[in-house]
Design a protein that fits this description.
The protein is of the alpha/beta class. The chain is 43% helix and 13% strand. The strands form four sheets. Strands 5, 6, 7, 8, 9, 12, 13 and 14 form an eight-stranded mixed β-sheet that branches. A two-stranded parallel sheet has the order 1-2. Strand 7, helix 9 (245-255) and strand 8 (263-265) form a beta-alpha-beta unit.
């Protein structure tokens, strides 16, 4: 058998196994809420994906089995393998957008930047809100132009600002940033290029030198980039890589003598999978995250008792319980569940459609009291969205790798969202002009 054919058959077998094992019931019904899961258990990013889905599925199962559903409405879910590609992401969306056996879709999570961009306009037509937590179109923060796109919690613009604010803390104040050098080593893709604009603005405001160094996908060889870093001799490096390019960057940085405790990874370079392959070279590495690692949060205690200890977890390797990616699944699932819960307060305790799900997202208000009730206090930031603000958070924490575990080294660091907003509005206005759209007017309780 040719190697390429064998690989294809193996990938297909894995995808089929993942799909067949994922649905909690064989059939859905109209009195249930459907949660489509666009997953990637196959391909280059599978090692992170399997933990994300475990976190999401464990929480959905907890909602069903412990809380009896969302206000009595049981959840049903099914997976569709995307391999983190736009093409398969579109196929999965088209398959799921009309619901499952009568159970409607209230929100949709593309779970990947390629699919998020590809589905942006399609979701507007279908009136299905996209939740893109930590990825997707930053300009979709402007809900007047993008009513069905929700880059909730932390956009790439806010990420850039939290980075600069953290460095300012470390350096002793914003005035100490003048004359400093901050280099960004970034994945040369739409995802990686998202921070070019905000970092240029922040550099102009605070007077630091803004050095940008792209890395072509997949990033298996980075000697040229880190030679540039060594020649530039920056004070800090912002590492905006993804997948295999992150441990390669950390190892190559060590080989070129750059101190790893002055490298700060972005949220897609902040997991155990990003540092373990780098071995000892990664000790001291820093990373931003809106969902820190750890299994000591209250929700983990509840999940352990009700799901894991009963053998019902989707995790195949329990050592990943509380990993960054597992926790990202928990947070993503919680945002979707709380949006539906919010919408039910207006539309009734029943399964909801996409338009109703959008209303729930635009009226989502998760404060400390609600986080405590959910068991998410410390794991998740406050989140308040509106018609004109589809991000609603804008904070991250910084964690540091000690060689075996992640340790939090900061509290929540807020982005300067007021400074960034004109950039967002400029991009959203350009999009509206290009597409001939008239931005809607936000009138409170739409």
């Amino acid at each position: 058998m040719r190697a390429s054919l064998k690989r294809s058959l193996v990938s297909a077998a894995f995808a089929l196994a993942a799909l067949s094992a994922a649905a909690p019931q064989a059939m859905a019904s109209a009195d249930q809420q459907f949660f489509p899961l666009a997953t990637y258990r196959v391909g280059a990013y599978a090692s992170s994906g399997v933990q994300v889905w475990a976190g999401m599925i464990d929480y959905l199962r907890y909602i069903n089995e412990v809380e009896g559903g969302i206000n009595g409405v049981k959840l049903v879910w099914q997976e569709c393998e995307t391999e983190w590609t736009a093409e398969k992401g579109i196929e999965c969306y088209e398959r799921f957008k009309n619901g499952l056996d009568g159970a409607p879709v209230a929100v949709y999570q593309p779970n990947g930047a390629p699919a998020a961009y590809a589905l942006s306009e399609r979701a507007e037509v279908d009136k299905i809100p996209l939740i893109t937590l930590g990825y997707g179109r930053t300009e979709a923060t402007d809900g007047t132009v993008f009513p069905y796109n929700f880059p909730v919690m932390l956009t790439f613009y806010s990420e850039a600002s939290t980075l600069v604010n953290y460095i300012a803390q470390r350096e002793g104040g914003f005035d100490k940033l003048k004359g400093k050098k901050i280099a960004t080593v970034y994945h040369d893709s739409a995802y990686g290029r998202e921070t070019l604009g905000p970092l240029k603005l922040l550099a102009e405001k605070y007077g630091f030198e803004n050095i940008q160094i792209p890395v072509a996908d997949p990033g298996n060889e980075q000697s040229a980039q880190w030679r540039q870093v060594r020649q530039a001799n920056p004070d800090w490096v912002f590492l905006r890589t993804w997948g295999v390019s992150t441990p390669v960057a950390v190892k190559t940085a060590a080989r070129f003598g750059f101190p790893v405790d002055h490298i700060i990874g972005d949220i897609w370079a902040s997991s155990s999978e990003d540092v373990l392959p780098a071995g000892a070279a990664a000790k001291g590495y820093l990373a931003l995250t809106p969902y820190p690692a750890g299994a000591d949060f209250e929700i983990h205690k509840r999940l352990k008792q009700s799901i894991l200890d009963k053998g019902n977890s989707d995790l195949k390797d329990l050592k990943n319980f509380g990993s960054v990616y597992y926790n990202s699944g928990l947070v993503n699932a919680a945002v979707a569940v709380e949006a539906i819960r919010t919408a039910q307060a207006r539309f009734g305790k029943r399964p909801l459609n996409g338009e109703e799900g959008r209303w729930g997202l635009e009226h989502l208000n998760i404060d400390d009291a609600r986080l405590k009730a959910m068991g998410y206090l410390g794991l998740m930031q406050n989140l308040k969205l509106s018609c004109s603000d589809h991000e609603g958070g804008g904070s991250a924490r910084v964690q540091q790798w000690d060689g075996a575990n992640w340790t939090l080294v900061s509290d929540w660091i807020a982005a300067d969202r007021a400074l960034l907003r004109p950039l967002i509005d400029e991009k959203s206005a350009a999009f509206a002009k290009e597409k001939g759209l008239t931005p809607r007017t936000c009138n409170g309780d739409e």
